[in-house]
Each structure stands twice: as C-alpha cells, then as structure tokens.
Specification:
Blueprint lengths: L9 H6 L5 E7 L6 H11 L35 H11 L4 E11 L9 E10 L3 E2 L3 E14 L2 E15 L18 H9 L12 H8 L4 E5 L5 E2 L14 E5 L3 E10 L11 E8 L4 E7 L11 E8 L5 E7 L3
Parallel strand pairs: 12-14
Antiparallel strand pairs: 1-3, 2-6, 3-5, 4-5, 5-6, 7-8, 7-9, 10-11, 10-13, 11-12, 13-14
Length: 322
Amino acid sequence: MSGAGDPVGFQERLKTFEGRAAASAGVGKDLVNEAMIRHWCEAMGDANPAYAGPDAIAPPTMLQAWTMGGLSGHTDRSGAYEELFALLDGAGYTSVVATDCEQEYLRPLRPGDRITFDAVIEGISERKTTKLGTGHFVTTRMDVRANGEPAGTHRFRILKYAPVGARRGGGAERDADAGKSADAEKGAARAVRPRPVVNRDNAGFWEGVAEHRLLIQRCGGCGTPRFPWLPGCNACGSDAWEAVEASGEGTVFSYVVMHHPPFPAFDPPYAVGLIELAEGVRIVSNVVGVEPEKVRIGMAVRLEFLRVDGELEIPVFRGSEG
C-alpha cells in the first residue's frame, strides 16, 4: 500500500524523471558469439540443440547479457539514473533490492549480430510500504536491437527503500512503531525471508518440498531430466512429463560466499551453491554444515530441509569436509 510522509512535491520531482534516458545509443561490447552461448548453456545445464552448430541461435533469456558493460561499465550511460538515485538517497531511501524483470523477444539472436540498445526510466511508483521497508519502485525499460532491427525488450524493476526501523532523511519519522526496541525491530526484520514465487508451472515442486521430497521433472518424450520446473522440454520440445523424486545426493558445481550487501533475513557470510544432483540437473541453494570459506567445487553434499520461519521451509544442502 502507499503511504504518506514524503516532503511536499517530492513525488512530483520523481515523476520528472519518467521518460528520461538512462542509456542512449548503447552498443554491446561483443558481438553475439558462440563462446558466450556455450558458457551460458553449460552454466544453465541447457543442452537444447538449437543453441549449438552452424545454425545456432542464442538462448532468448540471454537478451540482457549482450548489453552488459562488465566491470569497466558503459561510457554511454546518461546522468539521469544517478540524479534519481541521489534524490532518493537524500530522502533516506538508501537501500536497494531488485524485485522482478520482464522480457519480450521479437527475433532470435545469432552469432555475429551487433547489439545496440536504448534505456529509459519508464516509471516511478508512489511511496509504498513493504515488509522490507518503505520506498519507491523504479522501472527501467531497455529496447534491444540486433543489426538495427528490434530484437526484444527488457524491463527491470527495483525498490529504493528505507529499511524497517531506519531513520528517514529530513525528519525524525521512523518506519517502525516508535515504541519498539532496537532488538525487537532487528528480530522482526530477521524473520522476513523472501517468499518463493509459486505459479502453475512450479507448484508441484513446492508441494514436494512440503512433503520433504525434492522433485525434478523427466520428459515424457525423450526422458531428459530437467530443473527448474518448466512447461516443456528444452531438448525435444515435448510438453509431456512426470515428476521424479531426486535422491538428494550431489556435488558443488559452483558457489559464491555472500558478504555484502547485508539483508535483514540473512546472516552473512553464507554460501550459495549451484548443486549438481546425481540425476544430472542443477539447483541453486544454500550450502550449510561447513564454514562458508571451506566450501569447494566438487564437495559432496546431501539434501536436507530447513524451516526458516513458521510459514517457509526450503531445501538446502549439507556439505562434508571429508
């Protein structure tokens, strides 16, 4: 829901940024190429034959990848985004979290395509109150072209917010009740862990979790196992499938140890692993039971289920140093 509390005229100032360019005449640093496609497919475990060979196309979900500036960034980014962030930071909305993205695909991308793009600040919401805190949603739209032809659209939405209990800039207002103690506020914030997005395609997976079963899919056409849950097979295109319970045995295929940014629901440092299951599919989850700095690629792990609060239970993987 929206709330009051912003300075008079603040929302009107935010609205002046809508329609302003966030990046203009951007150019992808590399042509669409086979090497990046291969790395992407290996990381995702996607063996679709459409992404290999002389007539290969790029996976549609790589749309944004071809526009990224890497560590050196882009020199064609406008100042509007920085000005908007400075305005929000000055009002006390100093934290940021990505909330969702939407992509529309207009044509396949093939090796050799030159990618260009424009980005615009499409929308800024009124002040909203969420479990994380109070702030404004900012939506950026990127229009992507391949060799000058429209190729797709990428919308990315973030929340710039003041965390629950944080003092807002420009006054003594607090987003939590003034009577709460700092310890109570910290404990309440820690109890909030992001909820999974459950839809008609993955509901069966979460039903399995509730029964302490890790369910993957097996194609009814070619027998290929897959995860995450999808309505169709990447290998043969069949929409026939069955749910199969995974053994829970796996190894760490890749991992990252998170130190920053801090997030109220988590206690850094913690390890996030890409786990390769014995069935040949991969799943992203936390690696527990060992110190984060001792997690290693190839480490054997075993499935267990972790209850994080009264409503949410998730699959995690316990590592073994032996």
